């Protein structure tokens, strides 16, 4: 085993080499670097310092606040959970778009008729925020999600409207932005339907993998 003093050198973004001095000073990291370590352990420590932020941290960095539970219309009851955890999977019921206060988010109606493509794409992103809110309440932390398996999107479509994948990109872009390409990549379906509950322009369900 090769033993050495592990020191991770990190250069700032605006660093320019100074050839007048042969001494290179390390930038201190959060973890101590004074013990003798094997090569593998030293590399693991360095990688930990440079690890990508988790989903919870990424949301905070982006300034995204997730909406509270959906405020249902009077006399409307839903006899199922928004998130159903079974073993290492979480099955997410169909979600619609929400406003930051938890109320239903418009515009409402068929895409390609009363709702434009860009409005529908924005609604799909709001569906993603609604879904992340439900997941965080159920799981305690979005960092428990180790992979997005599948996403099934339904778009309230006008006759002959065929740009359902472009609508669903609003959702997929959010998931990739928050979770990154490794955890966030997912299989996806984007279908057009004649109508949706509450006249939503978009409804989305999904399945994710969980860690401890």
From TrEMBL:
It comes from Mesorhizobium plurifarium. SUPFAM superfamilies: YjgF-like (SSF55298). Residues 109-199 form the Endoribonuclease L-PSP/chorismate mutase-like domain. This is Endoribonuclease L-PSP (Modular protein). Gene3D superfamilies: RutC-like.
């Amino acid at each position: 085993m090769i033993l050495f003093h592990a020191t991770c050198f990190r250069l700032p973004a605006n660093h320019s080499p100074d050839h007048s001095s042969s001494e290179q000073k390390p930038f201190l990291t959060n973890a101590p670097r004074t013990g003798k370590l094997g090569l593998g352990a030293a590399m693991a420590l360095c990688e930990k310092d440079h690890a990508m932020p988790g989903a919870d941290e990424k949301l905070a960095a982006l300034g995204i606040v997730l909406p509270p539970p959906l405020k249902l219309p009077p006399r409307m009851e839903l006899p199922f959970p928004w998130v159903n955890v079974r073993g290492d999977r979480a099955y997410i019921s169909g979600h619609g778009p929400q406003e930051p206060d938890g109320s239903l988010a418009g515009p409402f109606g068929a895409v390609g008729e009363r709702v434009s493509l860009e409005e529908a794409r924005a609604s799909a992103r709001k569906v993603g925020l609604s879904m992340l809110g439900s997941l965080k309440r159920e799981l305690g932390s979005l960092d428990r999600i180790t992979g997005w398996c599948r996403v099934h999107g339904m778009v309230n479509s006008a006759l002959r409207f065929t740009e359902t994948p472009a609508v669903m990109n609003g959702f997929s872009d959010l998931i990739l932005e928050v979770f990154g390409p490794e955890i966030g990549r997912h299989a996806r379906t984007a279908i057009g339907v004649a109508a949706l509950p509450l006249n939503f322009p978009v409804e989305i369900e999904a399945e994710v993998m969980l860690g401890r």
